[in-house]
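Hey team,

Filing this mostly as a record. A colleague (T.K.) asked me to run one chain through the structure pipeline before their review meeting, and I want the input and output archived in the tracker in case anyone asks later how it was produced. No errors, nothing strange. Just documentation.

Input sequence:
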Amino acid sequence: MAQLTKFFRHSIGEPPGKRSLLYEQNDYVGVYHDYISPTGEYVVFMSQGYSNGRFLLLNTQTGKVNPLTEKAGQCQGVSWRPDGSCVFCLSSRETLLWYPKEGRKKDLGKDYDNSFRRFLPYGPSIDKWWTPDGEYIVINSSKTGGCLVRPDPWHVFPVGKRLVSHLEATENRRVYRDSPDSYPYLFVQPYPGWTRIWLQIATEKKPEMPGQAVALEARNYLVDYEAERFLLRQPSDTPGGGFSLTPDGRKIVYFSRFIFLDEKPAFIPVVTQ
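Output structure:
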């Protein structure tokens, strides 16, 4: 069923009634999603819902809307560089980088298809923002594991796979996986240069849980962007729980389901380029 969609601009401190209409669409169909740039200057949205539309870019200062893609498809992810200078757009039919201030785009279709699409039966999970240094897009899927992607020029760092390979080949640890071709996700840290990866190691201990064939030990690792340094840190029961580095890299904040638990000095080595 078609619906009316509107975008308004409202400045902080102004009364609610004082807002300006930027854009409206009378024939919008489907579930609405938008992806606002970190600077608030632009909004990426789909022309006809999440499942069958084209990417559009709205300039919040001028109200001008430009089409970014030509083919209608399912939205599979949008990710902004932290300074708002570039956005990565992925649909079921197209992959591109768009530089809004330059009005320039780069087609990444072949690069993405050869690295991901041909191996994945479904769309991956893509973080809404790049790494804090503005260098990498974060792409996670069980088939490829957690990956950092430098889009221009294209280069994929399979961080999750490299950690598993290190543990199994170098440390002789058996990493528990749902299937032989599944790998762990990564969680980008606010401190540039490092990601967090949660996984489980099979142990020789007697299983304590009913129906459990092998006893598992949960682990958290800090892994650098090139997956060359691996730092074991305090474990957590779930992938989403655990810890996060502070933006200055001086402390590790421990939490459980977004509830603060503790903080400690990080002692993280500086990553040099």
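Quick notes for T.K.: The longest strand covers residues 20-28. The longest helix spans residues 159-170.
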